[in-house]
Amino acid sequence: MPPLDRPLRADAQRNRAALVEAAAEVMGRRGLEAPLDEIASAAGVGNATLYRHFPARRDLVQAVFADQMARYAAAIETAWEDPDPWLAVRGYLTEICALQAENRALADLVTSAEYTDDTRPTAVAHLQALLDRARSAGRLRADFAVEDVALLLLANAGVVRRTAERAPAASPRLVALLLDGLAAAAATPAPPPPDPAALAHALSGTGPIPSNEERAP
User: Fold this and answer.
1) Within 10 A of 197 (CB to CB), how many other CB atoms are there?
2) Residue 56 DSSP code
3) How many domains would you assign to the chain?
4) Cα–Cα distance measured from residue 5 to residue 10, given in angstroms and rounded to the nearest whole number
5) Span 94-123, average pLDDT
6) Which 3 state secondary structure label does DSSP give 74?
7) Domain annotation covers residue 1
8) Is 34 exposed, middle or buried, given 0-12, 13-18 or 19+ CB atoms closer than 10 A?
């Protein structure tokens, strides 16, 4: 039988907790790609200690933001409780954009294709159903797709990064303006949403979203 995992010693537990706390603060200011040596220094430990607890940046990100990502998953469940399909969509998008505005790293995380977790596929499926319900009710513009939610979050993330500590005030203004354009009554013809594969490519940080012409065979 493989050996059972042993609990961390008290000093190791303190070091790990200090690293998670420091990472939350540094990444909150500088984003997910904040220097790991700065995080280690803020925690009062060496780089070797950081890598012993978190061999990859992804491990540290998941430890820091697990609770916050659970809030994103919970937001879609809360939206389903609203009997009004349009208000449910508005409430959900408003809530997740407000969560983004709380923390720069969260703004990056929710639009990242690299730092995903087990809750995302279920949340996306529920979001698709939420949008379908609002479109079927004639309240949401017919061409609004799940990929457009990612575009909205990318736009909001840009505002969060540029406005820094003023993001909680600037973000709601952007979101309110964008949401007014999603109502079926306000819809005007628009280009198609980005191809899902192309959008995932862009969210992974490996390149921009190709244009429709660039995607054409």
Assistant:
1) 9
2) S
3) 2
4) 15
5) 77
6) helix
7) no
8) buried
